[in-house]
Amino acid sequence: GLPRDLEGLHVVVSAGGTREPLDPVRYLGNRSSGKQGYALARVAAQRGARVTLVAAHTVAIPDPAGVDLVHAGTAEELRSGVLDAAADADVVVMAAAVADFRPTQVTEHKIKKTDHDPDPVALTRNPDILAELVAKRAAGQTIVGFAAETGDASGDVLTHGRAKLARKGCDLLVVNAVGDGKAFEVEDNAGWLLAADGAERPIELGSKARLATEVWDAVVALRNHGATS
Ligand code: PMT
Fold this sequence. Notes:
By secondary structure, this protein is of the alpha/beta class. The protein has helices at 35-46, 75-86, 129-136, 154-168, 208-225; strands at 10-15, 20-23, 26-28, 50-55, 67-71, 91-94, 101-103, 123-125, 142-149, 172-177, 188-195, 200-207. Strands 5-4-1-6-9-10-11-12 form an 8-stranded mixed beta sheet, with helices on both faces. Strands 2-3 form a two-stranded antiparallel ribbon. Helix 1 packs across helix 5 (208-225). The structure holds ligand PMT. The site of ligand PMT has 27 residues, from helix 1, helix 3 and strand 9. Its EC number is 4.1.1.36, 6.3.2.5. Residues 6-221 form the DNA/pantothenate metabolism flavoprotein C-terminal domain. It comes from Labedaea rhizosphaerae.
């Protein structure tokens, strides 16, 4: 069986992609399926944690056993769900793909097709939930971010990941290479695990459950020894 090394901890995981409405039937969204976040929640529950899973839009995935599930549509809703649950959390993992922008106007009625060119869609910046978590972090809380980066070479992805870790101020950052059918929607994931103390290691291509296991191993090591290795 799995180690029960998350027993006694409350962990919060966000999953899926937010949808930002334009009108009653249309939205801006992204390709996140929720599979990575659900795998993180499932593995944490199997290792003994009390788990709150805050889920934005996902494909159909069975509810993980023994997990408190909170649904969120937009980035604003995901923010409230995550911040509420994070108030007494020991670990927060942000695997959700949160829209950075939302349409400034949400029209009450369906936008009509016209003969002239449509007006451009004005966008407003969404709150950065991970940055807010870091700013409000309680003593002893561990915060893990994910980063979806495109790049021509793995070097680009890592360079962007390192900059994002420094900017966001979380304890661990999982950097996924995306694009070309990688990470989003598929069953497998790979990337790099970057720690605030400068430790870096590759995560080989494998199931999202395996990546989840490596993330929880790193969280446990960080909490018990102050370092990931
Ligand atoms: O859902 P799947 O199909 O299984 O795919 C998994 C995944 C590729 C979506 C996942 O592994 C992943 O990488 N999630 C993060 C994707 C992302 O939005 O990355 P980002 O670089 O835009 O954001 C960086 C971090 O800030 C993330 O932890 C994100 O949750 C967080 N964020 C981003 C924007 C925002 N407004 N608020 C946030 O908290």
